[in-house]
Amino acid sequence: MLTVNENSRYFVPAPAVGSILGGAELAALGEVVRSGESLSQGRWRDAFEQAMREHVGSRYAMTVTSGTVAVALAVHLLDLAPGDEVIVTPQTFKATVDPLLAHDVTVRFCDVEPDTLNVDVDSFESLITPRTRALILVHYGGRPARMDEIMRVARRHGVRVIEDCAHALGALYRGRRPGALGDIGCFSFHSSKNITTLGEGGMLTFDDPEWAERLDRIRSNAADGVLIPSPLSAGPYQHSEPWMMWAGDSYEKECLRIRHPGSNATLSEAGAAVGLVQLERLGELAGRRRWIAGRLARTLAELPQVRLADVPEDIHHPYHLFTFFVRPGQGVSRDEVIHALEDAGVQVQVRYFPLHLRPEWRGRGHRLGECPVTERLWFHEQVNLPCYPSMTDGQVEHLVLALKSALTGRRDTGERGTSSYEEARA
Ligand SMILES: *Cc1c(COP(=O)(O)O)cnc(C)c1O
Fold it and tell me: Which residues carry this modification: N6-(pyridoxal phosphate)lysine (predicted)?
């Protein structure tokens, strides 16, 4: 069923919901509502976390309330100190990098590969100094970054790697899953992502038991501090008294330093129950994205005006985003292509504005020219097309025609896009 808002001028809108929710999700929600159990920190969270551990192949998988919170807590776990340096990709959503604004560290934006928009390994290595503590990267659009090469460089220099896997659920890299390739993986289950936990949700994946202990404290309103046994534990109050049970280890510990005051960042049982069902449907949801992406890629492969990244055999791409590049000097500009697509009712979002040029980062001294490839692609070449499971076959065919027309249609009539789109359809 086509569900296009009648007031919308878009026949193929950008996705508001990335996955499809149906009867199985409703049944899971019904079970939670009827259970009478706590709606927080219960068995659905445990089951969802276990399923994600098995899926990703990490020792720990811990839910939080969003992908943004996941990255912020991953950065926290690194214990960055003033003067430390962190290398980041500029080609991602702001939540990948902006948690660093709260830390007194030097941030270096590294450039991206011109075909994948993922971190360029040479650019990353060239920015490493003795003070470099971490790299934060994204698997852009779901396509895994060159993790073997990146981790070789990172390990050689003692640099930790945070993978932002917000797009990459369902991806495979040389038989392994993003989220288990670096030191910490961060997932988002926002409404627009590959699966959703009812609108908002996130997850961290990693292997370090100390991180698991610290993270579990923070997300359940306990301080992350450096604690040692207290001499008071030998005092007059006995821990075996019933009211002392509720004090936990409070009385028996001494705090030397607070790293994080603690927060409430655990995913609700309703979200976890829906996430569990969505994870079971991941193959089906990603399969539909891959089918649409295949159709778009075959269309574009015939057109000399564009270039696409090829996808090697050892990568499975879940196509959270479908991206192509308009070649300069081939008779049509990127901006003309986007105008023509918009005129044909296709909503185009170019993701993402280079982060080093956002005001927060310019305010810290970052400048145009810092990441020339990222800038050239975003300002002149890059296009992202709608590609999500709820797109109908009719919308896909409309998009294919609009695309052919936008790239090859005559635009010397004074009218953009629409007229040549109509010709292509006729
Ligand atoms: C969506 C997204 C996030 C943030 O996730 P939320 O769950 O929306 O907070 C972080 N990084 C990237 C790359 C994203 O696309």
Answer: 193
Ligand 1 pocket test target in 100, 117, 193, 196 with most atoms within 8 Å of CB: 193
pLDDT tens, 166-209?
999 999 999 999 999 999 999 999 999 999 999 999 999 999 99
pTM, two decimals, is 0.93
Q: Is residue 396 part of a domain?
A: yes
Per-residue pLDDT reduced to its tens digit, 81-128: 999 999 999 999 999 999 999 999 999 999 999 999 999 999 999 999
Cβ(99) to ligand 1 under 6 A? no
- Atom in ligand 1 nearest the alpha carbon of residue 95: 10
* Residue 30 shares a structural domain with residue 109: yes
- Asked if residue 40 is part of any domain, the answer here is yes
CATH number at residue 345: 3.90.1150.10
Last residue within a domain, chosen from 250, 278, 306: 278
Q: How many residues does the chain have?
A: 426
User: 194 near 166, Cβ under 8 Å?
Assistant: no
Q: Is residue 15 part of a domain?
A: no
pLDDT at residue 16, rounded to an integer: 85
Atom of ligand 1 nearest to the CA of 66: 7
Query: 7 in a domain, yes or no?
Result: no
| One domain for residues 143 and 243 | no
Residue 77 and residue 194 in one domain? yes
Distances (CA, A) of 270 to 38, 55, 123, 245: 10, 20, 43, 29
Q: Do 269 and 324 belong to one domain?
A: no
| Single-letter amino acid, residue 311 | V
Is residue 194 in contact with ligand 1, taking CB distance under 6 Å?
no
Q: How far is the CA of 93 from the centre of ligand 1 (A)?
A: 6
Residues with active-site annotation: 193
Residue 18 or residue 100, greater confidence: 100
Domain boundaries, position 291: 283-425
Alpha helices in 131-223 (DSSP H): 147-156, 209-219
User: What's the one-letter identity of residue 215?
Assistant: L
Distance 92 CA to ligand 1 centre (A): 9
pLDDT of 311 reads 92
212 vs 134: CA distance, rounded Å: 19
- In the chain, the percentage of residues whose pLDDT exceeds 70 is 92
How many domains, in total, are found in the chain?
3
Distance between Cα 190 and ligand 1 center (Å): 7
Give φ, ψ of 40 to 5 degrees: -140, 145
